[in-house]
């Protein structure tokens, strides 16, 4: 089979590369042509466009680079026509991918599958119309997406969650606390992990409030999980005058040894839950008070963290926009540090989430479903 795959971001490159590996295991005649990155290229096939030349986030950046965006769309269309695939597989990246889906369904007699649904359940729910019109099959990685799409009379298949795979397959699983602190030059105090995000803007918004309370907890050590690609000096400037430490390339190892965590909303909240670490979820927004007013209008979901969305209740406290201050953070941190009942309740909720997410093997499950559906045709 010939597969044309489109991933427009680093995360998509990772997920698509894993899918390609599993597709090759199920289909010995698999051929690939794709828009993606280095990880996909390592699996073999023809790279049409690197995601680094496609990742324009936000309406302003899209408008400033409109000619390039339109050129990428046209280049992608031409590559699909030239490759004549048996199947087009889209990975998240909805603004670009739904346009390509429309082109394929209107001009070529081949199926279009979506692997990893765009987050239309959070915002831009109107995209369900395009998905129902142009997408033949959807493979999702969040359990609650099944009921969301069912509400719109569109059947999807949950195939597992990549974070489950990443945590299950991580190195150093047997490392002890003593070995970890010795290797990373940390003290022997219990660890409060700070996960402030992966982008400079969100780190700048979150980290100062996180580190400001470190002095209130002399019996703990606060340790920041440094994001790849962010200069250490950037962190140093934000943490001046504090006793907070930072380590890079150790996020999973840090969570494995952490007593508690403060986590910027995103995939990291789910990863923290998979390590069964009690957490407070935070998210900084410019114009905090106004943002809190607009949140129910813009967002179509009750919660922002994946943990709460999967649990379908506020299992972890979310401090968003104006509610995220050092004072409120300290109050919530005190609750999960010193109230054992609160910690037990949270960990029990994590265990239920872990059960809901299921076993590792997301890409494998997706590849089996994809190849199986094509064989049946």
Mean pLDDT: 92
Helix segment tally: 18
Radius of gyration: 22 Å
Largest pleated sheet: 7 strands, parallel
Shape: elongated
The total count of strands amounts to 13
Q: Runs with pLDDT <50, length 5+?
A: 287-298
Percentage of β-strand residues: 15-25%
- In helices, the fraction of residues equals 40-55%
Category by helix and strand content:
alpha/beta
**Roughly how many Å apart are the termini?**
12 Å
Task: For the largest sheet, list the strands in their spatial order.
Answer: 3-2-1-4-5-6-7
List keywords for this structure.
377 residues, alpha/beta, 6-stranded parallel β-sheet, 13 strands, 16% strand
How do the helices and strands line up, and which of them pair or pack?
Blueprint lengths: L1 E6 L2 H17 L4 E6 L1 H5 L3 E5 L7 H7 L1 H18 L3 E5 L2 H14 L4 E4 L12 H7 L2 E4 L4 H7 L5 E2 L3 H7 L8 H8 L6 E5 L4 H12 L9 E6 L5 H7 L6 E4 L2 H7 L2 E5 L2 H8 L4 E5 L4 H11 L7 H6 L6 E3 L5 H13 L1 H18 L4 H15 L1
Parallel strand pairs: 1-2, 1-4, 2-3, 4-5, 5-6, 6-7, 8-9, 8-11, 9-10, 11-12, 12-13
